[in-house]
Structures are given as C-alpha cells and as structure tokens.
Amino acid sequence: MTTEKDVAAAASTALLTDHYELTMLQATLNSGAAHRRSIFEVFARRLPDGRRYGVVGGTGRVLDLIEQFRFGDAELEHLRRTKVVDEPTLEWLANYEFKGNIWGYAEGETFFPGSPVFVVESTFAEGVILETLVLSIMNHDSAIAAAASRMTAAADGRPCIEMGSRRTHEWSAVAAARAAYIAGFDTTSNLEAGRSYGVPTKGTAAHAFTLVHDDEREAFQAQVDSLGKDTTLLVDTYDVTNAVNIAVEVAGTELGGVRLDSGDLLVQAREVRKQLDDLGATDTKIVVTSDLDEYAISALQAGPVDAYGVGTSLVTGSGAPTASMVYKLVQREDDNGQMVGVAKASKDKKSVAGRKYAMRRLNTSGIAEAEIIGIGEIPDGDSNDRHLMVELFKDGRRVDHSGIEEARKRHEQSRAELPAKALQMSRGEAVIPTIYQDESARS
Amino acid sequence: MTTEKDVAAAASTALLTDHYELTMLQATLNSGAAHRRSIFEVFARRLPDGRRYGVVGGTGRVLDLIEQFRFGDAELEHLRRTKVVDEPTLEWLANYEFKGNIWGYAEGETFFPGSPVFVVESTFAEGVILETLVLSIMNHDSAIAAAASRMTAAADGRPCIEMGSRRTHEWSAVAAARAAYIAGFDTTSNLEAGRSYGVPTKGTAAHAFTLVHDDEREAFQAQVDSLGKDTTLLVDTYDVTNAVNIAVEVAGTELGGVRLDSGDLLVQAREVRKQLDDLGATDTKIVVTSDLDEYAISALQAGPVDAYGVGTSLVTGSGAPTASMVYKLVQREDDNGQMVGVAKASKDKKSVAGRKYAMRRLNTSGIAEAEIIGIGEIPDGDSNDRHLMVELFKDGRRVDHSGIEEARKRHEQSRAELPAKALQMSRGEAVIPTIYQDESARS
Known about the structure:
Two copies of one chain form a homodimer. Chain A has 443 residues and is α/β, with parallel strands linked by helices.
C-alpha cells in the first residue's frame, strides 16, 4: 500500500510549516529558551456555531507524519538559500527528531470546548515546529469527521456514501474519505482512500456515461453487460419514469439499484419505489445523491431511500470547514527547572495555563453529563468518570497504532454515550458542559 | 525545487479519482463508446451566493498533474486486487497517456456563470478519467482565489499576508498560498509554497515565543537580537500599551513593525499608531491579524494599518469553500463520425450542449459589459471583444507554461477591467451578464 508516508518521503512534510515556527526556533536557540521543557496543548475554544459536539479526526495521520518529520538536504538547502534561518538553526534542524511524549483523545472520540485533544511534551524547540502540521491535520480532519457524524446520525443506520472528492483539494479528498469513514460512512468514491487506508470504495456511472451512448437503453445495456445486474443505474438523465422502465427491462428484477441525482428526491423516491415494486423489482435499491447534507438526509428519512451519497457538504464540513483548534504553550520550565503554567491575557483569546487531564463524567445510566478538565494530576474520580487521555508517543517512540476501524468503533460508542439531544439536527449549545476542576477543589 | 510533481511521482495521482470513472471506462471499453471523440467542459452553473465574479485558480497545477497522470504498477495492482475493474481495462490504463487537446481560461482570469473555463477534447475514455482530479484542483484553488481577490480588493493596495495553513489540510495549505498569491496576496507563511512555487514567505513570532521567555522584555530582546530590529514584535500577549513601550525601548525607533492579534483592532491600531509616533517610531509598521476577512479588512481601511494577515477565512474560501464547478460531456462523436451536442435534461441541473467559445465584451472605455458564450466557431466579433480561450494542451503536449507571476498580473488586469461594482463588498449578482450567443444569430 502507498500511504501518506510515501508521499511525505518524497516531498518531506517538514516545510508544511509556517515560516514563524522556524524564526521562533532560531531566536530561542539564541536566547536559550529553545531547550526549556514545555507542554503544548491542542484544543478548540468553542464548537462551530450550533454544533452539539466535536469529533477528533486526524490523530492517526498526525502520528504518521510526526514519525517522519525530518529536514532533509533539499529542505535545508531551500531554507539556506532563502535565508529563512541562520546556520546554527539549520544544523539543529538537520538533527531534528521528535523525542518527546504525546497524549491525547483517541481518534474518533467526541470532544467539547476546551478538551485537550492533543498534548505535546518536549522541549520548546521540538514542540513548536510541529504546530502548523498538527493543526492543519486536526483542524481539517476533525471538521470533516464532525460533519460526517451528524450525517450518519441523521441517516440512522441507512448507508452513507462519501463522494465529495471533486469538491475539495485532491489530497484533502483522501483525508476527508478517511475521516468520514471514522464517523460512520460506509464507503467512499475515492480510490486513493481505498489504497492508503483501506476505506471500501464504490461507484458505477455518471450522466456522461448515458450521454456518450446513443440512448439510455444502450447505455444501461452496456453497464449491465460490463458491471453485472447488481449495478446501480443512474435514471435521471432524461425522464425518470421512462428510465426506470428501461432499467428493469434491461437488467430484470435482479437490478441492484437505481440512482436519483436531481429534482424532488422525496417525491421521486416514493414514485420510483412504487414503480419498481409494481415491476416486481422489490429488492432493487434506491440511492439518492444531489447536494445532500444532514438536514436533507433527515427530511429524506421519511422516504423509501436505501442509501445516501454525500459530496460537497461533507468535504466542506457542512458550513464549518475547520475545527478552530489552536496549539498553545500552557506550561514551560523556568530557570530553576520548575514547570510553570503560562497563558496569554489577550482580551478575546484567553487560554488556561497548566498541564490538563480530562474525563467524561457519566451518570449511572452511562450517559455523559460533563467534560471534566483539570490541571495537574488526575484526582481519584467518581467511578463513572471515563478517562480520556491516551498515550500516543513515549520518549519519541510512537506507542499508539490503532487504525481507522478502531476509531470508527470508538466514535460510534462515544456518540452513543451522549445525551439524545446531541443527535438532534437543531442548532444549540454543546450537549454537555465543560467543567474546569480547580486544583484547590480536590480533596 | 521539489514540486507537486515530485509528490505525484512518489504517490501517483492516478488514484485521486472517483471509483466510477474507472467503472465507466470499463463499461465503455466494452461497448465501444470509450473511443468516441468527446468534448468535456468545466464550468460553474452559478457563483457562490452574493459573489460578483469568480477567479480561475489551479490551471497550472492541473496541467502539471495531467502531464504525469499515469497508472503505475502499484496503482494497477491495487485495482486488480480490489477488483475495481477487469483485465482489459487494466491493460488500457497501463498504457494511458493523455493525447488530446485542452483549452481554457488562463489562470487568474475572472469568470462568470457558464464560462467554459477548461475544455478537454479527447476520446471519451481519455477525458472521463481526468474528471475528478481536474475538478478537485479547480474547485479548491478557484474558491481560494475568489476569496483572496475580494480581500486584496478590500485592502486596496495595502499588503495582505496569507497565514491560514493551520486551518486547512496540510497540502491544501500549499495550494491555497499559491492561489492567494495569484489573487494579489503579497506573501505567505507557508514554507512549502515558497519552495514549490516561489511564493515569498514571511513570519516572525507567536505568543508562545513571548510565553516561553521569563517576560516580554526578554522575549523582545531575544527576537531583536536574532532577527534584527527590522522584525515585527507581537504586542498583545499581556498589555498592548506596555508592550509597545518595551518594544521601542528594546529595538529603538528602527523597529520594523508591531503585530496586533486580538481586541478591537481599529481602536487599537489608532492608539498604537499615536503611541509609536509619540515615541518617535514613525516608520514602525502596524500589522493586524485575528480572524480577518474581506469585511473586516474593509472596516480597517479607515485605520492606520500597514498590512493584513489573513488565515481561516482565506483558506476556507470566506464562506464559499468550493467553486461548484462541474465537468460535463457536451459533445461526442456518433456512429457516423459526426460530432453531436449532448446534454442531460435533469430538472435542476441543465447543461448546454456543444463546444463553446467565450469572449469578454468590453465597452469603448475597456470596461467589461458581458460574458459572451457561443457554440461552434468563433464569429467575427466586435473589435472590443476579448477572446478568453487559451490553448493549454495540443495533441497530448502541454503548450502553456505560464507561471504564477503571469497569472497574478493577469488577475490584476482582468479584475481592473470589471465594472467598479465588482469590488463592492455588498452581496449581489454577477457583475456582468452571461449571454449565450445562438449560432443562428450569427450572420
């Protein structure tokens, strides 16, 4: 399998980084602060407007890329030629290899405002240069996973097919298919997501296929001859009723499915279901596509729809294309070797100093009640508290290798644990409150 | 320079493709329709809600990737193992190389609903398998370019800095920086965009840099010592007024700039300008950042701001993260070797059959009046009509090698040619109408 690793091996990911990470590195190498032990924390100050919960996406990809985040000769030469940093900094970069520890929420886990979803413990220098790459991946993949989760919640067990590759950057498309799968989508149209991550891929034909043949009958016959009767025929190129008749004439009642991609999908799905049943094609499925989002899926649940194909609104995060996560220094060593909490005081962008822990507080029925975030050591909690921090890297070695199947299961469980209100389509606040546990409050 | 080409060479771009492109290929190879000469057209049915014009982005990247769109052993083996297509199709793919012609709008050009921005002439098979990749690139890059163009229009000559890498997929970030540069941004924070495309990169320091030092004075001193007095100091970590005093004490009146990243930017910019002037630092620039978009930039034009740093809203297309372009079969050969126009009749997604030409109709002052789109041969037009179709590929060979500097100049010229209304921030219709010229209307 070619993986993102192969891509990165060719074009090192080291320069997928903001210029200022390296100038900060240079200035701190010079001042000595570069070597201070530091803790950086990734969190979202808020959820996108109206959303009830967030979904952690991208953790596995981040770990892949940190494992091989290296500055090779080509990268160093570029930085030298363009005078981004000085020679001592280039030398430091040439030897760079992440040696620290990382904890975080497991991929697929739900999260809330302030949840410390990814925590990097290293020197300042080692941690600061990972900021851009970590945020790029987690902001993108978490945004897609969150949108996907609402869609699969709305579909309530009916299969969802990811088909948005054409509406997003060509490599985002691969990550989006992966994130959607984690959040419950069944399949993707994206072949590279199949190769890189093993996401099941599906697809049959577009309108161009019908149009390149002399008529619809010829097109359907060609498709059935080549792909079998179990294929899905696209029936809205000209007239749906006519097309459905031809489809069943050509494939017989074993026809796998028909796809509707325009018009009033609910009305048409009902008409087509009746028509198929009347023709004896009672097992032929109806797949609908056409600018679907979680709201459209919700509305279509009333109809005889067997699968939803979702494109644009999935890959663009359904109105929230980024998860707004930030990567903040929350603790660092002082001159005496003591770790001290730090936080900026900017008016509208406060952060909370100190190393965090996090737990999901559950009631006696196992339903989530609150996101508990504390500073320092984890207290002996209520036995119903579910610990959320997982060890991902230890002393520079990756220790978490869970894959997308585990993340998918985890997401299903984590979502099922939320209050029922989380699955409503209506806009609202985070479905559980985030409670900061004061150190002094612990007994 | 490592380019997108190097990335693609490692992980072939051939699988950045929807599954159904290959099943259509298989079925048409079987029916014979695969070999029919065909014309596919990329266009947007509409502009994003409220937008006055679109901007063509990504053309150069598309041409790079088509040049090396090949199915290697690894890709073929994946398709064989997962049974996506049959052996004759795999054999056809193994020999695939685009042999056709491509025309389109030059990158950076403005466009309107229906503009045929990219036209592929080849066999059905050769053209259909490029659909996903072409759309992924053009939909993403055009969305970013369009948002960037509104921002640089609002900034009206003040420099704009692209710094959104952390809020989008790690490779989208590189393409976004490139698209923003084409639409008038001056610099980017993204180092890979510097390496791959020569976009100038800039950056100094984040809040973490201040926080890792014992106090602000120590941090500013470290930055000035390492990066020079010409650097830009971030002054909102604690108290802005205090920080500006320290900044000038440390760097003197030659201080390059200060950056504000929170609070009421307009009020603060005015206060800080007065403070800097009073301290004698009259040449020290004020850079503002913090969730800026074209509307915020517009409002800040009233203040003494020297540069805008834009992140999230740029890389997410400022509310329109995709350009909604489609790739449609509009003409194909029939059994007699004649080319015939084709179009689906789907209720809400009509397309117009036939090979298009396009011209920008200009008035006697050189201001755009209409987008003229016609079918067939280009008529002898008004001498003020500007022809828009450029030859990009001829008989499988790329003939256009214009780079991002040319695209940037082209965008500036094309935008300047639009009616003044195009640059207003208020939402509205496309600033010029799209007029379909009937073949019969030609004399």
